[in-house]
Amino acid sequence: MSNQTATVATTTHKPPSGQKSWLRGVWHFLYQHRRGAGSLVFVLVALEIVARYIIDNQLFLASPTRVYQAGVALGRSGELWTHIYTSGIEFILGFAIASVVGIAIGALMGLSTTVRAYLEPWVSALYATPIIAIGPLFILWFGLGITSKVLLVVVTAIFPVIINTHVGLTNVDQSLHESVRSFGASKWQLFRMVRLPSSLPFLVAGERLAVARALVGVVVAELFGARAGLGYLILVSAQTFNTANLFVGVIVLAGSGVIAMAVLQRLEYRLSPWRVRE
Amino acid sequence: MSVGNAPVKLSVEGLSKVYESRQGSTVALEDVSWSVNEGEFISVVGASGCGKTTMLRMLAGLILPTDGRVLLNGDVVRGPSADRGFVFQQDALLPWRTLLDNVLIGPDVMGRRSEFVEEAKRYISLVGLDGFDSYYPHELSGGMRQRVNLARALVVDPEVLLMDEPFAALDSQTREVMQAELINIWDQARKTVMFVTHQIDEAVFLSDRVFVLSPRPGRLRQIVDIDLQRPRDLGVKRTARFAEVVDQIWKLIEEEVRAGIAEELRDAKRQREGVPE
Ligand SMILES: Nc1ncnc2c1ncn2[C@@H]1O[C@H](COP(=O)(O)OP(=O)(O)OP(=O)(O)O)[C@@H](O)[C@H]1O
Ligand SMILES: [Mg+2]
């Protein structure tokens, strides 16, 4: 969560441009997040102590310094980048397809009651289904390569996008709708001028859910069978009892999640400057 | 008065509206007929819930009558159009548009935004909001938003202005200034105005005629001619004749308000007893 407040801080307290402005920005950021940073440091130190002196077994727990060393080694050999690249492509493709197709389907459902009547039972049933469980079937159908992963990401991430788009487009304040309609606006104008902008917050919320689901989708799809990727790294590390490497994979994933959320938050602020910020 | 032999601008014939909802059907308006001449200023008063908003929405074409019809320049109204400007009871500004962009909604719909930017700024300054062009609605006070509503309806220069309690959210001083301003605008542009209000003195001060509606079902109870000299300034409010007319209308409404409240109480009681816990 701390990344959300981070973007607020950097957007609202823009430091004056100049030579040392970025330094001041960093200082400002650290100051704003001194509590979060403090708790992070505390936990890392505690983990280090526990891993070194209490559970001195590399199988169960890897100390932060060892994880760091493992990460550096994986980076040097180039292996880490291959995994990140593979998973990244799967994530980006899957998420992009889920977004575009999901928004299109959600918009159709929001605009046409007929389409909605046909699709609603499917969407509500599949939204709550852990589709990820049929991942092995996807590997069977589409092979060990990237296709099966992308498709699994699409089907896990698409439902929150569809539902939020649909809900956003249907929950429009009637008085706003009327105020524009009173000028004789056409259906299309009403859509563009009222329904679309008022559904934007819903849309972004749907995308946030989709990011989280897509990340899980990538990893789980790779666990079911792959030749590369962060999920594959985690799987192989677990099978070879290399706890440090396993944690490298997990931490990279966590970092990606944080970055993706921060990007979305930025996008939301860019798209909706009218919304009240805390 | 100012109207003379002006042609009929707006009229309704046997206008009725029945709302169907889960609680049953509500007759909001029943068999209302009147006609208004070009350039006339009409106020509509009546107890809460007597169908004033409903009537105005049918004039705007936002809803269709259950029975009867609305005629504008002799043609049946079938839907909304920029030739009738609507000022809403609740402020209905788009939160994602700045003040200026909200005022430009009408021109945007007409696809003629650039022609109207100067006009929009003129009206913004007319309603006293100079310098607030780039503010978002949430950064404005309730009264300011209400004034934006007014500017938005005026900017496209509609033939008929339909105003639903446009000054309700204003403090009494601003309200008086806006009344005078509205009279000014009306004087210059000679628009036909239908003005809904709960303030009888406001209705009398502004209007050529006052339509008094009775509630449940809403009917046109009486039309009161206001024979006060024009142009009127705020001083007219302190004359004996003014007080007399206000009193006359208030007496008409008073009974209705009491009857309405009594009926509401009866309804509520019936509902309580009808629905077992
Ligand atoms: N959309 C609707 N569906 C069902 N009933 C409605 C609807 N709109 C209004 N009504 C009913 O119609 C009647 C008239 O409502 P209307 O809003 O026209 O009253 P009004 O005279 O404008 O009241 P106020 O002075 O309080 O604004 C009321 O009894 C109300 O409950
Ligand atoms: Mg009303």
Kindly report the CATH topology of the largest domain in chain B: Rossmann fold
| Radius of gyration of chain A, taken over Cα atoms and rounded to an integer in Å | 23 Å
Percentage of residues assigned to helices of chain B: 25-40%
Number of domains of chain A: 2
According to DSSP, the number of beta strands of chain B is 10
What characteristic shape of chain B results from the CA principal axes?
A: globular
Structural category of chain B: alpha/beta
- The CATH class label of the largest domain in chain B is Alpha Beta
Identify the CATH homologous superfamily of the largest domain in chain A: MetI-like
CATH level-4 homologous superfamily of the largest domain in chain B: P-loop containing nucleotide triphosphate hydrolases
Strand percent estimate of chain A:
under 5%
Number of helices of chain A: 12
Describe this structure in words.
The complex is a heterodimer of chains A (278) and B (277). Chain A has 278 residues and is an all-alpha fold. Chain A has 2 domains: 17-56; 64-271, MetI-like fold (Orthogonal Bundle). In chain A, 81% of the residues lie in helices and 0% in strands. Chain A has helices at residues 2-12, 21-32, 34-54, 64-77, 79-111, 113-128, 135-142, 146-170, 174-181, 187-223, 230-239, 243-271. In chain A, α1 crosses α12 (243-271), α4 (64-77) crosses α12 (243-271) and α7 crosses α8 (146-170). Chain B is of the alpha/beta class and 277 residues long. In chain B, 39% of the residues lie in helices and 25% in strands. In chain B, α4 (113-126) crosses α5 and α7 packs across α8. Chain B has 2 domains: 1-83 and 162-253, P-loop containing nucleotide triphosphate hydrolases (Rossmann fold); 93-157, no CATH class. Classes of the chains: A mainly alpha (278), B alpha/beta (277). Chain A binds chain B through residues 175-176, 178-185, 189, 193-194, 197-198, 200, 272-276, and chain B through 60, 62, 79-82, 84-86, 88, 90, 92-97, 105-106, 108-110, 136-138, 156. Bound molecules: adenosine-5'-triphosphate and magnesium ion. The site of adenosine-5'-triphosphate has 13 residues of chain B, from β1, β2 and α1.
